[in-house]
Amino acid sequence: MGQNYSTLRNRIGKGGKKKMKTKLTTDWICIAMSGKTADGREIKAEHLEQMAKAYDKNLYTAQIWLEHYRYIGSNYGIVEALETRTEGDKDKLCAKIS
Questions:
Q1: What is the C-alpha to C-alpha distance for residues 34 and 81, in angstroms, rounded to an integer?
Q2: Mean pLDDT across the chain, nearest whole number?
Q3: Are 57 and 80 in contact (CB under 8 A)?
């Protein structure tokens, strides 16, 4: 038995019931739009559609990192799902993040 009593009690909780972890998930958030970027590149609507269609959290989970640094603490969440939306003449890539 590699775990001591206090570790097990913290994991299980008072009264012997397992603690439930709460998972919060955002509503759909726009993370990209079709058109010109600030540095002059162009994001095409079909690329956004391909991203949304191909994203599979179980195959490769996109994680949210501060400034792409992976050695400072843990990630700030994961991308649960992607979808595209059209508003006016712009196509948007939206994500649910938890």
A1: 19
A2: 84
A3: yes
pLDDT category at 9 given cuts 50, 70, 90 is: very low
How far, in Å, CA of 89 to CA of 42, rounded?
A: 15
Tokens (6 digits) for 23: 């998972």
Cα 24–chain centre separation:
11
* Distance from C-alpha of 54 to C-alpha of 52, rounded to nearest angstrom: 6
Q: CA-CA distance, 17 to 28, in Å (whole number)?
A: 34
pTM of structure? 0.71
The whole-number pLDDT of residue 74 equals 81
The tokens 């439930």 sit on which residue? 20
Q: DSSP labels for 13-42?
A: -GGGPPPPPP------EEEEESEE-TTS-E
Question: Could you tell me which residues are beta bridge partners of residue 45?
Answer: none
Could you give the CA distance from residue 64 to residue 52 in angstroms, rounded to a whole number?
17
49 in Cβ contact with 84 (< 8 Å): yes
